[in-house]
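Protein: NAD(P)/FAD-dependent oxidoreductase
Species: Streptomyces carpinensis
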Amino acid sequence: MSESHETRTGVPYDVVVLGAGPAGANVADRARAAGLSVAVVERELVGGDCAYWACVPSKALLRPVIALADARRVDGARQAVTGRVDADGVFARRNRSVSDWDDTRQALFLKSIGADLFRGHGRLDGPRRVSVTRDDGARQILTARHAVAIATGSRPALPDIPGIAEACPWTSRQGTESSTVPTRLAIIGGGGVGIEMATLWQGLGSQVTLLARRRLIPRMEPFAGELVAQGLRESGADVRIGVQVTALRRPDPEGPVTLTLDNGGELEADEVLCATGRAPATGDIGLDTVGLTPGSWLDVDTTCLVQGVDGDWLYALGDVNHRALLTHQGKYQARTAGDAIGARAAGRPLDDTPWGDHATTADQHAVPQVFFSDPEAAAVGLSAEQAERSGYRIKTVDLDFNAAQGANLYADGYQGHARLVVDLDREVLLGVTFVGPNVSELLHSATIAVAGEIPLKRLRHAIPPFPTVSEIWLFLLATYQHDQETP
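Structure follows.
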């Protein structure tokens, strides 16, 4: 069907989806596969932040920077590197990756599955009702026979710093859509967005200063942040840890920004980028009309059914339920929710016993995440600290990647580190962390091991091919076995 522009009232559908990002599109697809009619409401671009301001453009921008760094790590190739990354070429590549911010292809996908797209601002209007207000002010009501799925995502959370309004800081959006390289860029925040933006803009020619209150990427193992900080410093970035910004000044909107630091010092930059977390994009979607708090994260069960709302009709998937603010997790949740919606709509008993525990593992305990910094940092499951805090009896196995010949063939003097977190009582992996060039490609094997709770005695028979970086598995498992056999 074509996009809907009617101004009718009370248009009935089986399912209404708020948000057409990856999670919204996937739950729509799953519901349509179950034979249900679906309306999808989107106020911005179909495809969401991931496609236009986050995952896709950031990786398109970062890849040339990392490719050049990789070339410099290989003798014979480094001699061919005679200049810097060409910023204009990188921006052109980014523009192609986001289709010049044209969502036609994404909208055609919704059409291809038979979902109706309504462009405008969607809000709940009581149980099973959604009000859609278009840009021209026209308003219509959609009704849902079976389900409303909230997939509105999250937004950048700006810190409460005096002067932040006049400073007009970049967020991750400006960090991925800008086509101008600032001479000096200050980044506030040492999480995933902060380190990726620091890697990117330092590589494009900015002098980057990264300011973090505590260690970098604090939810990963400590060595991950340490190695990423080392890599940023080697690239020329100024990384300051244990520093807090107490005020911002930008008297001239076209002039520089002055950052006041808690140690009494000041820093001047041409732009400042705030990478200080995310907030739920639920402030103006009518949560109050169904008894929920506007602007809150939404609590859900294993089928993504929102708790605290009667009738088993309201679902929340992706960032809004705060389980894991990652595209791949949102898509996983969407498939789960779509199957649950289809079963409930058909009146089939929904027994999630066979898969409920697995869903909890995949959605909470075996979540894979990669930061495309240089070096890359990739992890799944629990860190050693998290595992101990949860009461597990654990052993950690640590190795540098130079133990694997394949790593040394990948890059001369390959620098990286790997850790396994082992549950000693069951002899399965609770978590795995890799830091080093291209380690993102190792993470799915780790995710399978953690999510599948594969016994280590069996995992030892999964033989990595020679000579690859994945040989690190062989040495990690052999080290664990040796340690267990040695009195």
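Remarks: Residues 164-276 form a domain with the FAD/NAD(P)-binding domain fold (CATH 3.50.50.60).
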